[in-house]
TrEMBL record:
Transmembrane segments: none annotated. This is Transposase IS200-like domain-containing protein. Coiled coil: none annotated. It comes from Desulfonatronospira thiodismutans ASO3-1. One of its GO terms (biological process) is DNA transposition. InterPro entries: Transposase_17, Transposase_17_sf. Residues 12-159 form the Transposase IS200-like domain.
Length: 306
């Protein structure tokens, strides 16, 4: 039976909600696998002409809200810069490459295919297996910007709440709200253009605060599909104006005090790292991660990502 054609709008920037499920039983995506899948999504979003608006990686599926830009946005200079990042400076780059990659890197199906194939190879190697990892082809739908988009983003971020995994959506670090709150949107990975002009906000922190408020108020409503955010938690957040306190930000960094490998001042971490990097098989210099909420303290490991 032939597949239905995928709905795309190739001639203008378009937002899509992508959903992909595994072919394996149970919950094959553990913490390590979720971390790796997120790294892969981040990498390819820096190669393709896309903005990532939201995501959530669950135990057996993942959601992605992404805005794809058409070929008109792929200038020769930008394509070349991304080509060098992907393949290095020694690989030939000419008119044929411009034509090929300006088309490829503005294509939703190619974007998702590379993410899924790269992760499948990683998973099979890690678990010493062969065969398919992903199920049927990914689902995608075109999403109108504005209120439809922000409701869809809230739906994505509320997945861990409906599943009963966490009590507050930002406690789940493999989701967009968790990434905003726990990492401060590290590397500018996520776009904060939710399309709600009526918010009339330009301060990124205030935009995220209003989005968090929207997610909480939406998540408190019983829609008959899974669990909701506890009303007491919502009331407590309301009293704080949905602002994340310094204490709360610090709490999200507490893993650094148990899993950082080396923690302390930047010079101290560098000194110790130089002495133990042979044990880690590392020959490169490393940029150490500042621990949010504690001035002047750094971690050897990048726990925001790993």
């Amino acid at each position: 039976m032939p597949r239905n054609a995928r709905f795309t709008l190739p001639h203008r920037p378009t937002v899509y909600h992508v959903i992909s499920r595994t072919a394996l039983s149970g919950l094959p995506l553990g913490d390590i696998e979720k971390n790796r899948l997120l790294e892969i999504i981040k990498y390819f979003s820096s190669i393709y002409f896309v903005d990532v608006l939201g995501f959530c990686i669950m135990g057996n599926h993942w959601h992605l809200a992404v805005k794809i830009y058409p070929r008109d946005y792929a200038t020769r200079q930008e394509v070349q810069e991304r080509f060098v990042k992907r393949y290095g400076e020694d690989v030939h780059f000419g008119d044929q490459e411009i034509e090929k990659f300006s088309k490829k890197w503005t294509d939703l199906s190619e974007f998702v295919r590379e993410i899924k194939q790269t992760f499948s190879r990683y998973y099979n190697k890690r678990h010493n297996r062969r065969g398919f990892f992903w199920g049927e082809r990914f689902k995608s739908m075109i999403v109108q910007e504005g209120s439809t988009l922000v409701n869809m983003l809230a739906y994505i971020d509320l997945n861990p709440i409906r599943a009963g995994i966490v009590k507050k959506p930002e406690d789940y670090r493999w989701s967009s709200l968790g990434y905003h709150v726990q990492t401060g949107n590290k590397d500018g990975f996520l776009s904060i253009d939710f399309g709600l002009k009526e918010w009339n906000e330009f301060d990124p922190q205030e935009i995220v605060r209003k989005y968090r408020q929207f997610v909480y108020e939406t998540g408190a409503v019983d829609a008959g599909k899974g669990k909701t955010i506890d009303q007491k938690i919502v009331e407590k957040a309301r009293k704080k104006g949905y602002k994340i306190s310094r204490v709360e930000r610090f709490r999200y960094r507490c893993r650094y005090f148990t899993d950082s490998g080396v923690i302390g001042g930047k010079d101290f971490v560098q000194e110790v790292f130089d002495q133990v990097k042979h044990l880690l098989g590392s020959k490169d210099k490393r940029k150490f991660t500042p621990v949010g909420g504690v001035e002047g303290v750094y971690s050897m490991k990048r726990l925001g990502e790993s």
